[in-house]
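We modelled the chain as a single entity of 160 amino acids. Its sequence is:
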Amino acid sequence: GEGEAEGQKKEPIFICGDSHSMSPGWRVLEGRKLIPKLVTGLKHWHLRPSSNFYPKVSFHRVVRSIPHGSSVVFIFGEIDCREGLILAVEKDRYECIEDGMSECIRIWMEEAGKVCREMGFKAWVHPIVPVLNETRSIVVKYNRLLRRAVEEGEEKCGMK
């Protein structure tokens, strides 16, 4: 590839996420190809232990397809912000949207951290993309809480 010394091939970076993982796919960043790993329809909420919904199964299948020790950027959570959290509060599952956010982020950090440790990933969590005007304020708040959780859990989870 461009800028690579002969005989040296840089390891790719895997972009594991919902449909937002496709946009950066197949580009090259500092000599490293960005390879999308799509998990359609996954909410952070789906990764809770009691769930057996197909996006959770798909997440684990996709993650196992990424080579051990790889660099991985995770892009998930937009669907939680677009529909999951709002519906959960409307159904009185949470008293307020912040409680729902905290629970979804806790579930995500626990499961993603476990996967990263098991697979030896060097991992980053991409902020949720605020794609809709209607949910932008929710996404901004969620990203603030997600960033705090990632910073606090960096050592334990191995994610940045």
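As a brief sanity check on the tokenised model: The first strand starts at residue 13 and ends at 17. The radius of gyration is 16 Å.
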